[in-house]
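pinned: reference chain
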Amino acid sequence: MDHTSDDDSDISESEMDEYEEKYYEQLKSGKHQVKVSDNFFTCPYCPKKKKKDYQHKDLLQHASGIAKSTSEKRSAKEKAKHLALVKYLEKDLVVGVGPSKPVEEGDFPVDRDSEDKFVWPWTGVVVNIPTRLGEDGRYAGESGSRLRDELTRRGFNPQRVHPLWNFRGHSGTAVVEFNKGWPGLHNAMSFERAYEADHHGKKEWFAKSDEKTGLYAWVARADDYKLTNIVGEHLRKIRDLKTIPELIEEEARKQDRLVSNLTSIIELKNKHVKEMELKCTESAQSLRNIAQEKEELLQSYNEEIKKIQSSARDHLQKIFNDHEKLKFNLESQRKELELRGTELEKRDADNETERKKLAEEIEKNAMKNVSLELAALEQLKADENVLKLAEDQKRQKEELHNRIIQLEKQLDAKQTLELEIEQLRGTLNVMRHMGDDGDEEVLKKVEGILQELREKEGELEDVEALNQALVIKERKSNDELQEARKELINGLKDNPSRVIGVKRMGELDSTPFVEVMKKRYSEEEAEDRAMELCSLWVEYLKDPDWHPFKIRKVEEGHKEFIDDEDEKLKGLKKELGHEVCDAVTKALIEINEYNPSGRYITSELWNYIEGRKATLKEGVDVLLKRWRKKKQQMELE
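pinned: its structure tokens
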């Protein structure tokens, strides 16, 4: 590689454009070799780099990376050279870059039915390579890479050239390795014919002549494979002998096997598709049947509720009408008795007969009063029956409504209490009318019922007020606790303690990834690889369509567990080990528990000693301890 004298001194950043143009002109003039063959290129400014052959896009990426590097190890002159190389690749070498025309499957460079045995993979033999005796007494010769580059420029496209060495050093012989496929055989035969055309083939090498100059080469066959010299020994170590028909038959077997395997896979896939279609059809039909049954049950339930409510309304209306009718009759009889009592009092002093009649009338009135009391007792029993009917109605409603929501129990209880109040009011009205006769016992009962009515109404108001107050207080307390917990989390985020701190639930731990990558790569590369893998699995965790859980029945009901048969988790465990898999499953469980719908990381107050969610009291205790400690320090200062 040519190097000018200005390589010894560096340049400033301001001179980079000028030097870039200078190096670009050198590349255009052909001073530096960039294109090695139709498919491969080399970097003329990195002669010490192990990798010397690049494809066009790889060399362009290499040059761009160095040109744009911010590392202090890269000098300005080195960046200018690679900038010129980028410009040269994009402007002058972009046309014509691409693979050489492939050899078609049917284009055989030799007879397909030939029984000649070739060394396979296809191998060429090069002899008469110039050697020179070194100071150490061993022979040295041309390197394999230089000979490979020369053969590549001639269009033979070898994969590798391997010089053969023995105890004396370079033997002057090399083995040329070609591609295993038919294009490789085509290149090998072209290689052999080229040297035969120059009269430097196998026949000329073994011909008895006085002097042989230049390189001689041919394609290795059975006779070369069986040689007892260094060439035969090398070929027997790493190569086999095969005929063209054998290779064609072997390739046909592989294709048949591939076709058979693919056919089996397609049949299996088709079978799975049919099974899935059948399951989908069955599931759809089942869902339709369930929806129809649900609709019918809902309709039946609504009709039943309407019937019960209608029946209850009719029954209550009938009871109310009977009650009003009975009340009217009692009122009429009372007025009639009052009139008779007045008449009896006027005629009290007429005569003894009249007094006897009056006594009999009083006795009759007393009997009628007893009858009225009995009627009143019957009315109380009827009221009790009304209450029983109301209770039956309540129980029926509870049994039906429990299917939908249990909170209606409070509404039914309230309705029952209101119904009792109404019944007490009706009883109170009856007792008031009966109390006009002056009976002290009836008046006491009226006062007792009135007192009970007031207590029931007060109890109803107290229950409603207490219930409302408790609901409002509980909601307010819960909101205050949640706000306090959020403020506590924000306060401990930047300055957590060893016991109580803030944990990001669902965050993936990258430590197992780094440990695994350190076993496979260097420390610097391991860090980058681990971060790439960790970022990939973070995206998997955010995916709502990935739900590797299965539901199992436990004593408390049903619970979700990690599905150990999930393909992603099985592949992860197989590739990176159980530590990495455990870290991913731990993050999965936390996300599923704390934020299953959003699938993003949430902050939570955490007790690191006991490994659980910390209480608000524990967080407050930590803050109080810090405040007291700070206060003591300030007092000491």
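why pinned: Confidence is low (pLDDT under 50) at residues 1-8, 95-113, 382-394. DSSP finds 17 helices and 13 strands in the chain.
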